[in-house]
Design a protein that fits this description.
207 residues, alpha/beta, inorganic pyrophosphatase (n-terminal core)
Length: 207
């Protein structure tokens, strides 16, 4: 059995996966790309019993590949906020889909995890340009305005990193950026402990 994590290379995709893997650590093969590269599931070579997580990429754009991995015997957890089309009913598919305009995948995962890593959800929502939703998610955390601004900036920086025509255009490959932030239960720990990566993101955005 193998584990696969398939995710959008923007802030929402990365912050969604950080939450899930803080809650459920596992060694997995990472499948991602630039922000606009969303037909990712077809890159998975699934086998019977594999567990696949798909985050922040349209189910509609990955439907054929989804049917294929389910046919191959994989189990799929799929969370997204983009247009999904008809969601298949399958006993090995768990779909957490909400296409409301004030929702992003980070917030969906935050709900799924009952707020365990809500600071990352706030970061992802800010990165996805859902400022009101991010502020609402931050409210129960009782953060200062300065702390909220830190999360907003980090979300913007991570999201900006995902823009480019190809991976060579990016400051970090999204899989490498995920590895840089993975394991930090709080984005504030990442900001303080991994200054080199944070400053590379910050300078890339400000350049």
């Amino acid at each position: 059995m193998a584990f696969w994590d398939v995710f959008n290379g923007d802030a929402d995709g990365i912050c969604s996966l950080v939450q899930l893997r803080n809650a459920e650590p596992r060694e997995s093969t990472l499948i991602t790309g630039v922000k606009r590269d969303i037909a990712l599931l077809s890159q998975v070579q699934a086998a019977q019993g594999d567990q696949i997580t798909v985050l922040d990429v349209s189910m509609d754009k990955n439907k054929e590949a989804l049917f294929a991995v389910l046919e191959q015997g994989a189990e799929v957890f799929y969370s997204d906020h983009h247009f999904a089309g008809d969601i298949p009913e399958h006993d090995r598919l768990t779909a957490l889909i909400n296409t409301a305009s004030d929702v992003c995948t980070s917030l969906l995962v935050n709900g799924h995890l009952k707020g365990q890593f809500a600071e990352w959800a706030v970061t992802g929502a800010f990165g996805d340009n859902l400022r009101n939703s991010a502020q609402a998610a931050a409210k129960p955390l009782n953060l200062s305005e300065a702390k909220i601004e830190q999360l907003e900036n980090l979300g913007i920086y991570i999201n900006y990193n995902g823009y480019g025509s190809n991976l060579e255009d990016l400051h970090f490959h999204p899989a490498e950026l995920y590895r840089q932030v993975a394991g930090y239960a709080s984005p504030f720990d990442f900001i303080s402990d991994n200054r080199e990566a944070f400053e590379k993101l910050e300078h890339g955005y400000q350049a």
